[in-house]
Design goal:
With about 240 residues, the protein is mainly β. The chain contains two helices and 18 strands. The strands form four sheets. A six-stranded antiparallel β-sheet has the order 2-1-16-18-14-13, covered by helices on one side. Strand 9 and strand 10 form a beta hairpin. The protein is globular and about 50 Å long. About 35% of the residues are buried.
């Protein structure tokens, strides 16, 4: 799974998924328009929220312990915790097709499956055109923010680095955190690193690579087997 965090300002972190989520079990929930759902959100990892056959345009969630952002291509939303919490939160999902769904999220310390919402009693909308899919239009109220131009630029940077320095290449040997490539652009610098696991394997989290001037992080493979290795790309502001 390609996944990265893009930061427009120090206090707002955006999560953008570039490819399809890995095939793992999901929290499947169903609701009619104007109905309500409940699901778990992790405080130890990023949690993805999707509406099947639709795109999420807006999340309304006041005074949240989570930052929220979306994938400009798929309309998925990602939750990342910003402060310790065990409390439930109530809010609303507004989809691009105009449906509103109430929700209650329960914070949990464990890593949870993606949340897949199926709307009942409505016809599946037509597939968006390329122009619609790339134009964004997402609007978030509450714990997080979304800035289309920042998200788009980070997406393009990650794609360029992946195409030029990762795709088709094996992860080389080396110590954990070793920088194997540096790519410079206008106003940014990308570092291609190695993340390694020990004998018991490892969960490689984007949060592990946050730091000063970091604008985006992409971990190619989050779950590593024993002695596994993966690429990590960290984009920093110059």
């Amino acid at each position: 799974m390609m996944r990265f965090f893009a930061r427009s300002i120090p206090s707002a972190v955006l999560v953008i998924a570039l490819t399809t989520q890995m095939a793992i079990a999901a929290q499947n929930v169903r609701a009619a328009p104007d109905g309500s759902i409940g699901f778990n959100v992790s405080t130890s990892a990023v949690t993805r929220l999707s509406v099947k056959n639709d795109r999420i345009r807006r999340i309304v969630l006041d005074d949240s312990a989570f930052e929220m952002s979306n994938d400009a291509e798929t309309g998925d939303v990602f939750f990342r915790v910003t402060r310790p919490t065990t409390a439930s939160e109530n809010g609303y999902i507004i989809t691009e097709s105009g449906h509103t769904i109430g929700f209650t999220l329960a914070a949990t310390s464990r890593v949870v499956e993606p949340v897949i919402v199926t709307l009942t009693g409505v016809a599946a909308p037509a597939a968006p055109t390329a122009q619609t899919a790339s134009s964004g239009g997402s609007d978030f109220v509450g714990g997080g923010g979304f800035v289309d131009d920042v998200a788009t630029s980070m997406t393009e940077i990650m794609r360029k680095v992946a195409r030029d320095h990762i795709v088709g290449r094996s992860v080389p040997s080396g110590r954990n955190g070793k920088v194997i490539r540096t790519v410079n652009g206008t106003g940014w610098r990308a570092e291609v690193l190695i993340a390694t696991a020990g004998a018991s394997g490892r969960l490689v989290r984007e949060q592990d690579f946050y730091g000063n001037r970091v604008q985006a992080v992409w971990v190619v493979q989050n779950s590593l087997p024993a002695n596994g290795r993966t690429f990590v790309v960290v984009v920093k502001k110059r």
